[in-house]
């Protein structure tokens, strides 16, 4: 365990393999995934459903449970390897060093406790505060996530709040103890589009203000691009391209990334370019048990050649920084 | 705000029984045990004996009032033991799963296969008759229902978002069980407990009837009912008053449980502040 210096990454994942144990042997779900998140920065992990992004997040939280298992790889959280940490050790880290918000704010709050109490619990649990001072700090935390009239709202029960308000409360809980890393698993998917923007902006400003890094997991490239400095694109359990947000969006190198960006509908596109069908990527993500050999994207790729069927593309540096895993990138 | 009729009526009946138990020395007009007067046995309800007198000439009103002490103690205390055992076993089995769940489920199934009254009889036979043995015997035999409900609830609740969220925020198992699971399953457990109290009061009657419960001449509603069984046609008030006492107490407990469940679930409260 190194004493953390200013430059160490908050989260450093290397060569992470996650498998699903089954009757016919393990199925590899996440294959040699690696990335690192510098202190206080937002990192986006993007991909379609089933590409392994959420179980990567679970691994970071130490929440993989049988039949899911980490078969190899390291997860360094704030300079210490948590890959083999016991449940008791992980419990001390959760909430204090790393916390998480979920997709579904409607069910993530205890329906029988006022929301103020649920925030206050974090101060009591992790910082040994008395309930009285914790209650007062909970009101401050609500004010921090811009909940109007926090003194009154703190006494409300979850069912009295809208989805956006509940997600604000979740953010307040997750950030209560100023963790070093916030894992956000599709935090806005269940919300209205207008509320999505508010929540993302709120997460970004609050985290920036207290120096919390974000691991943002989403299938929404546009959303991720707005708040993250760096983005990794995952496909079928592997990272296919990684780079800074601006560069990745402006000049994607991997055909899958290009497809994803092409598939984002744009307001005014029809006016500018005439009536056109929205671009899509042919085919579907293969099931983990039947991942193709070589490059896993080759059955859906227009550039695929013989080498794509046989050789796994290795990571090579992108011109604009970052890496891309493709034999025919460009 | 709507009238919570069941809460008030149920609470009223139960409060009446509790008051009778607490104020028994004040309310009783005669000595419930020593006030026997064979010359005035089996008198119908009237001015002297409000609820009539029994075969030994004791005042039934006084005996019913004193009997509330024993019946309520048995009902409340033994059900409390049942609830604690059942909840602790059920919640841990449901939340942890694994071998502990197998063990608890196995034990529950074994307990369910033994008629609980027979099992209580066996315990009473070992401990000997008396109030304390009665509490232990009834407290150890009726926790299976609570246990099953608690286990099923824990299994259903542990995949809820807020339980996962509490885990992610660093809560320990004990804190999750006490703060997340228990309050959210309190409704059904309270309803079960009120039903169980009624059941315990009836089971006390059965055990007292068999001579293993409250020993004569001390009054309990159950033993009074048993004493009355020979003369129920000729002297109906012997059975009627302790019977009505049991009826209204158990009814009150059930209504009270219903009302409490409504209150404990904030979603049934008004949505507007």
Number of helices of chain A: 12
Residues in helix, % of chain A: 25-40%
Structural shape of chain A? globular
- Gyration radius of chain A, to the nearest Å? 21 Å
Unreliable stretches of chain B (pLDDT < 50, length at least 5) are: none
**How far apart are the first and last residues' alpha carbons of chain A, in Å?**
41 Å
Q: What is the CATH first-level class name of chain B?
A: Mainly Alpha
The total count of helices of chain B amounts to 11
Helix-strand pattern of chain A: EEEHEEHEHHHHEHEHEEHHHHEE
Shape designation of chain B: elongated
The pLDDT mean of chain A sits at 87
Largest beta sheet: strand ordering of chain A: 6-7-8-3-9-10-12-11
How many domains make up the 3D coordinates of chain B? Answer: 1
Please outline the major beta sheet of chain A: 8 strands, mixed
Mean pLDDT metric of chain B: 84
Share of residues in strands of chain B: under 5%
List the helices and strands and how they pair.
The complex is a heterodimer of chains A (330) and B (273).
Chain A: E1 9-20, E2 27-38, E3 42-46, H1 53-61, E4 68-77, E5 80-81, H2 87-93, E6 98-101, H3 115-127, H4 131-144, H5 150-153, H6 163-175, E7 181-185, H7 193-210, E8 213-218, H8 221-227, E9 230-235, E10 238-244, H9 245-250, H10 255-262, H11 269-273, H12 306-310, E11 316-317, E12 323-324
Parallel strand pairs in A: 3-8, 3-9, 6-7, 7-8
Antiparallel strand pairs in A: 1-2, 1-4, 4-5, 9-10, 10-12, 11-12
Chain B: H1 5-22, H2 24-27, H3 60-96, H4 98-113, H5 116-127, H6 131-141, H7 144-157, H8 161-168, H9 173-209, H10 221-228, H11 237-264
Helix pairs in contact in B: 1-3, 1-11, 3-4, 3-6, 3-7, 3-9, 3-11, 5-6, 7-9, 8-9, 9-10, 9-11, 10-11
């Amino acid at each position: 365990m190194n004493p953390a210096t200013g430059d160490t990454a908050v989260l450093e994942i290397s060569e992470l393999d996650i498998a699903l144990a089954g009757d016919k042997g393990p199925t590899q779900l996440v294959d040699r995934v690696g990335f690192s998140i510098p202190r206080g920065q937002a990192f986006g992990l993007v991909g379609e459903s089933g590409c392994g992004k959420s179980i990567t997040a679970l691994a970071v939280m130490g929440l993989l449970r049988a039949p899911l298992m980490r078969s190899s790889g390291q997860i360094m959280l704030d300079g210490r390897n948590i890959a083999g940490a016991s449940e008791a050790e992980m419990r001390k880290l959760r909430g204090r060093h790393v916390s998480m918000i979920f997709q579904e704010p409607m069910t993530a709050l205890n329906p029988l406790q006022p929301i103020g109490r649920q925030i206050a619990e974090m101060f009591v649990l992790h910082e040994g505060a008395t309930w009285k001072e914790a209650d007062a700090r909970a009101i401050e935390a609500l004010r921090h996530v811009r909940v109007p009239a926090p003194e009154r709202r703190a006494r409300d029960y979850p069912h009295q709040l809208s989805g956006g308000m509940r997600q604000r409360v979740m953010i307040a809980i997750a950030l209560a103890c100023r963790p070093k890393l916030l894992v956000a698993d599709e935090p806005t998917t269940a919300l209205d589009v207008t509320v999505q923007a508010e929540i993302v902006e709120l997460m970004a400003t609050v985290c920036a203000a207290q120096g919390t890094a974000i691991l943002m997991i989403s299938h929404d490239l546009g959303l991720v691009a707005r708040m993250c400095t760096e983005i990794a694109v995952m496909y079928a359990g592997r990272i296919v391209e990684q780079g800074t947000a601006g560069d990745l969006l402006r000049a994607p190198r991997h055909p899958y990334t290009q497809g994803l960006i092409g598939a984002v509908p744009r307001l005014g596109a029809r006016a500018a370019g005439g009536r056109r069908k929205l671009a899509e990527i042919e085919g579907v993500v293969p099931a983990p048990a039947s991942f193709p050999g070589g490059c896993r994207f080759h059955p859906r790729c227009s550039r695929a050649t013989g080498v794509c069927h046989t050789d796994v593309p290795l990571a090579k540096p992108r011109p604009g920084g970052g890496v891309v895993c493709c034999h025919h990138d460009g | 705000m709507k009238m919570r009729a069941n809460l008030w009526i149920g609470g009223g009946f139960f409060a009446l029984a509790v008051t009778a138990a607490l104020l028994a020395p004040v309310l009783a007009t005669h000595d419930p045990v020593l006030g026997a007067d064979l010359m005035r046995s089996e008198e119908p309800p009237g001015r002297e004996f409000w609820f009539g007198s029994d075969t030994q000439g004791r005042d039934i009103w006084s005996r019913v009032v004193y009997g509330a002490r024993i019946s309520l103690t048995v009902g409340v205390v033994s059900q409390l033991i049942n609830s604690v055992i059942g909840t602790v076993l059920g919640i841990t089995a449901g939340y942890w799963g694994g071998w502990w769940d197998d063990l608890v489920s196995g034990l529950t199934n074994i307990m369910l296969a033994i008629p609980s009254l027979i099992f209580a009889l066996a315990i009473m036979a070992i401990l000997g008759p008396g109030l304390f043995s009665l509490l232990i015997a009834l407290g150890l035999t009726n926790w299976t229902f609570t246990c099953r409900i608690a286990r099923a609830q824990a299994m259903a609740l542990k995949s809820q978002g807020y339980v996962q969220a509490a885990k992610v925020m660093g809560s320990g198992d004990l804190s999750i069980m006490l703060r997340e699971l228990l309050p959210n399953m309190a409704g059904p457990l309270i309803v079960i407990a009120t039903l169980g109290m009624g059941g315990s009061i009836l089971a006390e009657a059965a055990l007292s009837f068999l001579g293993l419960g409250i020993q004569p001449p001390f009054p309990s509603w159950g033993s009074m009912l048993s004493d009355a069984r020979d003369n129920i046609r000729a002297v109906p008030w012997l059975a009627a008053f302790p019977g009505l006492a049991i009826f209204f107490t158990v009814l009150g407990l059930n209504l009270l449980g219903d009302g409490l469940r409504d209150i404990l679930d904030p979603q049934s409260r008004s949505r507007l502040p």
